[in-house]
From TrEMBL:
SUPFAM superfamilies: NAD(P)-linked oxidoreductase. Residues 1-173 form the NADP-dependent oxidoreductase domain. This is NADP-dependent oxidoreductase domain-containing protein. It comes from Citrus clementina. PANTHER family: NADP-DEPENDENT OXIDOREDUCTASE DOMAIN-CONTAINING PROTEIN, PROTEIN TAS.
Length: 193
């Protein structure tokens, strides 16, 4: 027997239909980052009203939201770190849809200033920002055992508290990006096309 259901990449409309039919959904796993704020535009309100929690992935955009990509120029071949994983390539396309690499560099510089202020890294700030969003219960951080385990950064997330200036600085940059809800659609729509 099924007691509860957890979903992945359901949009707000489909989640609403499921809930209206009495199916006990506990969470919806969605892509959510400082670049991809689509879950906060429609999904979070429904989740808050119904008690459904958001579990986020892509919160550090496959590693793009890190010092490794700060002050890099990907338009020059071999000048920057390679986009050598499917995740990096996917999230680079998200950056392009949001505002391009130059705008992304402004975001990374902002995140780095905040990270330096708190003695942490860019990914720690990026994840903390998303964990502080309405309806978000947790975030999945990818690891590659022996290559990138992120243990210290993961622990630092729980110690970090972003202040009002930090949040305002991030929002000042992100509001200059394109509305991905209008460009791509609601959560998970990129998988339904």
């Amino acid at each position: 027997k099924i007691k509860t259901v957890a979903l992945t990449n359901f949009d707000t409309e489909r989640l609403r239909i499921i809930l209206e039919n009495g199916i006990p959904v506990v969470s919806n796993q969605v892509q959510h980052s400082v670049v991809d704020m689509r879950p906060q535009q429609k999904m979070a309100e429904l989740c808050q009203l119904t008690g459904v929690k958001l579990i986020t992935y892509g919160t550090v955009m496959g590693g793009l939201l890190s010092e490794k990509f700060l002050d890099t120029n990907l338009s020059i071949p071999f000048a920057g770190p390679p986009l050598n994983t499917p995740s990096l390539q996917k999230y680079k396309r998200m950056v392009d849809a949001w505002g391009g690499w130059s705008q992304f560099q402004v975001l990374l510089q902002t995140l780095k200033r905040i990270a330096s202020k708190h003695g942490v890294s860019i990914p720690v700030v990026a994840v903390r920002y998303i964990l502080d969003q309405p309806a978000v219960a947790g975030s999945m951080i990818g690891v590659r055992l022996g290559l990138a385990e992120h243990i210290q950064d993961t622990n630092a997330i729980f110690m970090l508290s972003l202040d009002e200036d930090d949040v305002n600085s991030i929002q000042e940059v992100t509001k200059k990006g394109k509305d991905l809800l209008g460009v791509i659609g609601d959560c998970g729509d990129e998988y339904r096309r």
